């Protein structure tokens, strides 16, 4: 899913310009609180907000001074080949400046905006200025096969060299002519200095279940070589939807760095009249007379032709089709994707950039409403499906089945999604067959991505100091899904083992006794003055952290949003100027004391 840009507006002077640009780009306006009257989303801190959007991969157009955007993103700059475009526009709309990602869309956006609002696009990249073209940014429908050569070729041309262009590449028509540099635009392999491929070719594949990736890869490479087709000239890989989760197909996708799209059997069967090698055997097995040829043709469109009919091995087939013009819109549907995302306790600075990027790329957000709300502006404009507390199974089933329809879905959890959250339930449903109340076959073929988050116990520990500095465990005190006797057994084991313990789900409106029972069990094994930390609403404005002795832990002081950290018999509170900090020694004290003893002896 393409990520929409965001237009930032920091004051009323630029508000009219911001809304004009937002209309041009079909983008939302994010406005500074109290300084902007109208916006789709409001924010309090411009630097934090800009940095969050940038780390999530969002293209940014800031109607503000360039320096504000530069200061915001400077601490997180790392890879110019992956970072989103960043542009600044003067409040009066007179000047548009692409600051970052000039050859990743910023220059194009600057030109588009400038033309629409009668502004000057202050493009500074050398090729655009001197030659009127960026050699490493071909137009849609073309791919540069050897981008590593672009800088050197550009340097030669800027130094007065001329180029010979072979093939149809109209965007290069104004380059200076000469024999110093060769540029080719072809679907074939070439040894030219720069090679552009028009993306008119589709690769159709089919294979037996669990076909070895090497077998499919070798077949495709042999087929391409025999037809004088460069692998980089392929636009996408197409196959039957029953193969959406086939490892060999996705290994091929990674090897060629192109997407996989799928069609159902009925769509492929409609291509039978164009197949060179239809098969009744294949039809009997999957409902279409051909997979590889039909998929390639369906992907390339009704005017396509087969330029490499079906080739096969024992377990794999492939074919290549040629569209009459470069393919810019992919046919078929993507393999569905479910991202299981832990967003941390709630504070956006604790959310990982990977989590933010997956949220940004998702079409639909699924989760408990409060957790989706905590995403703030990242959730704006996305389809969201809110489920109440207690609706965990429904939530996971829904997310899986929506992904099974080919959507990119994000399942939003607090903390870490794999720690007392939805991760385990997702995989449990995927692990069940249809007769075991599992999910559909389509849902089982999706891509599932789990991304780590800052867990509540980590957030609490960071606020405390270092209470998890030695062995620790986590125990949920909810007996809704875990038998009470199992919880009691674990409490005794953790108490006897002298672990630092993080209690999740310590109480609810109806569950009020297990926390007190846990306290009493622990008091049998560790001192009454063992430090206890109570951390509520971590990372949110209403955060509340306090310490108690174990024997003074009261149930009424704890709610569902509280993490309870119980120290071991070795845990301590360091009394510092800004208040107590909790830590659990790991054993360094023995070394320190030993060194101190030696020093004393020497004295």
From TrEMBL:
GO molecular function per UniProt: hydrolase activity; methyltransferase activity
Record GO biological process: cobalamin biosynthetic process; methylation
Under the heading SUPFAM superfamilies, the entry gives: CbiG N-terminal domain-like, CobE/GbiG C-terminal domain-like, Tetrapyrrole methylase
Check the record and name the InterPro entries matching this protein. 4pyrrol_Mease, 4pyrrol_Methylase_sf, 4pyrrole_Mease_sub1, 4pyrrole_Mease_sub2, CbiG_N, Cbl_synth_CobJ/CibH_dom, CobE/GbiG_C, CobE/GbiG_C_sf
**Quick one: which pathway?**
Cofactor biosynthesis; adenosylcobalamin biosynthesis
Occurrences of domain Cobalamin synthesis G N-terminal (ranges): 49-128
Q: Which Pfam families match?
A: CbiG_C, CbiG_N, TP_methylase
Q: Which key words tag this protein in UniProt?
A: Cobalamin biosynthesis, Hydrolase, Methyltransferase, S-adenosyl-L-methionine, Transferase
Tetrapyrrole methylase domain sequence ranges: 337-553
Instruction: Report the domain of life of the source organism.
Output: Bacteria
Q: Where is each CobE/GbiG C-terminal domain found?
A: 201-321
- NCBIfam families per the UniProt record, alphabetical: cobJ_cbiH
**By what name is this protein known?**
Cobalt-precorrin 5A hydrolase / precorrin-3B C17-methyltransferase
Q: What is the lineage of its organism?
A: Bacteria, Pseudomonadati, Pseudomonadota, Alphaproteobacteria, Rhodobacterales
């Amino acid at each position: 899913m393409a990520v929409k840009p965001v237009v930032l507006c920091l004051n009323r002077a630029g508000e009219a310009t911001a809304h004009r640009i937002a209309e041009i780009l079909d983008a939302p306006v994010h406005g500074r609180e109290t300084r902007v009257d109208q916006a789709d989303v409001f924010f309090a801190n411009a630097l934090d907000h800009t940095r969050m959007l940038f780390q999530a991969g969002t293209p940014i157009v800031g109607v503000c001074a360039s320096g504000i955007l530069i200061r915001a993103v400077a601490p997180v700059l790392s890879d110019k080949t992956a970072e989103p475009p960043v542009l600044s526009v003067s409040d009066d709309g007179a000047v548009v400046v692409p600051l970052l990602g000039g050859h990743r869309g910023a220059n194009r956006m600057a030109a588009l905006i400038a033309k629409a609002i009668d502004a000057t696009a202050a493009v500074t990249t050398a090729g655009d200025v001197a030659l009127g073209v960026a050699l490493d940014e071909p137009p849609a429908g073309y791919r540069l096969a050897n981008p590593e050569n672009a800088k050197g070729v550009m340097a030669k041309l800027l130094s007065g060299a001329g180029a010979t262009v072979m093939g149809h590449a109209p965007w290069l028509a104004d380059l200076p002519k000469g024999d110093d540099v060769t540029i080719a635009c072809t679907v074939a392999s070439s040894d030219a200095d720069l090679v552009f491929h028009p993306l008119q070719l589709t690769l159709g594949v089919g294979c037996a279940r669990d076909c070895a990736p090497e077998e499919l890869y070798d077949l495709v490479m042999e087929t391409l070589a025999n037809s004088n087709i460069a692998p980089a000239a392929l636009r996408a890989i197409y196959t039957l939807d029953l193969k959406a989760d086939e490892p060999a197909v996705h290994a091929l996708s990674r090897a060629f760095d192109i997407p996989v799209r799928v069609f159902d059997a009925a769509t492929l069967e409609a291509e039978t009249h164009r197949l060179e090698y239809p098969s009744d055997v294949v039809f009997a097995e999957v409902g279409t007379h051909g997979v590889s040829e039909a998929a390639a043709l369906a992907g390339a469109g009704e005017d396509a032709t087969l330029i490499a009919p079906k080739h096969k091995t024992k377990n794999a087939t492939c074919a290549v089709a040629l569209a009459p013009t470069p393919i810019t819109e992919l046919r078929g549907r993507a393999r569905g994707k479910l991202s299981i995302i832990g967003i941390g306790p709630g504070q956006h600075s604790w959310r990982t950039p990977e989590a933010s990027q997956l949220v940004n790329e998702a079409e639909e957000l699924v989760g408990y409403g409060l957790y989706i709300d905590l995403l703030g502006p990242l959730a704006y404009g996305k389809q969201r499906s809110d489920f109440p507390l207690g609706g965990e199974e429904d939530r996971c089933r829904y997310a899986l089945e929506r992904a099974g329809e080919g959507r990119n879905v994000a399942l939003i959890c607090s903390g870490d999604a794999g720690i007392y959250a939805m991760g385990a339930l997702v995989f449990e449903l995927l692990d069940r067959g249809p007769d075991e109340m599992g999910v559909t076959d389509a849902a089982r073929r999706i891509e599932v991505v789990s991304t780590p988050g800052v867990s509540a116990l980590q957030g609490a520990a960071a606020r405390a100091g270092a209470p998890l500095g030695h062995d620790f465990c986590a125990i949920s005190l909810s007996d809704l899904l875990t038998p009470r006797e199992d919880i009691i057994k674990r409490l005794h084991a953790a108490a006897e083992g002298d672990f630092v313990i993080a209690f999740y789900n310590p109480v609810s409106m109806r569950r009020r006794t297990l926390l007190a029972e846990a306290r009493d069990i622990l008091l049998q094994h560790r001192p009454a003055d063992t430090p206890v930390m109570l951390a509520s609403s971590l990372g949110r404005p209403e955060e509340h952290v306090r310490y108690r002795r174990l024997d003074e832990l009261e149930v009424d002081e704890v709610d569902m949003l509280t993490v309870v950290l119980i120290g071991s018999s070795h845990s301590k509170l360091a009394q510092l100027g800004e208040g107590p900090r909790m830590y659990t020694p790991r054993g360094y004290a023995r070394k320190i004391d030993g060194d101190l003893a030696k020093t004393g002896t020497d004295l």
